[in-house]
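Record PAS domain-containing protein, 223 aa.
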Amino acid sequence: MELDILDYYKKLVDFLGEVLGENAEVVLRDCRKPNHDIIAIANGHVSGRTIGAPITDFTLSVLANEEWKEKDYVVNYEGKAAPDKRLRASTYFIREEGKLVGQLCINIDMTPYEQAMESIRQLSGMGLMGQGPHSDIVCSGPVENFSEDVIGDMMKKAVISVVGSSEPKVRERLTQQEKIEIIGELSQAGLFQLKGAVGAVAEYLCCSEASVYRYQSKLQKKS
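=>
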């Protein structure tokens, strides 16, 4: 039986996990299965994820803007895992016949380094000079959120971006234009690539699925 291209990368996951140590999470994603895209993982305690965990907002944006067509990899961007854990994340794009089929990701827990730097600052007196404990730990750029509810988190972020609050009473009073703007942000972020996204968005924005499709159509006509 012919092996899938990602089967070859599965062997690397445990290997890299042991080489890099327990503070480095190694993840293999199948981008053809966005709702449950993690197919292999080492040191999953770093982000708290397991095999079958859903896609992240960062990967959805990569799929939506097709950044993978121009780059082989993205390194040293910030990842966030609960509770308030900051990671240094890097992703290698796996292609087959001109299509993105997977990603090999390494996420390093920066907590020990942040604690060490803070101790050094305290010992050297640098803490008195107004420098925060987390400066320059993680490179600037996109931020990837490791969440079990990526749809919910992305909807909340989009609503706050447009109207400043995601409270239920606020969402119940959204105007049509505000809903269109929110759906536009979610489309750009790639949310609608996920199965069940339209229904979830309709419920969250207190409208029908037909309305969501209608708003998407209006946005497509404008573009």
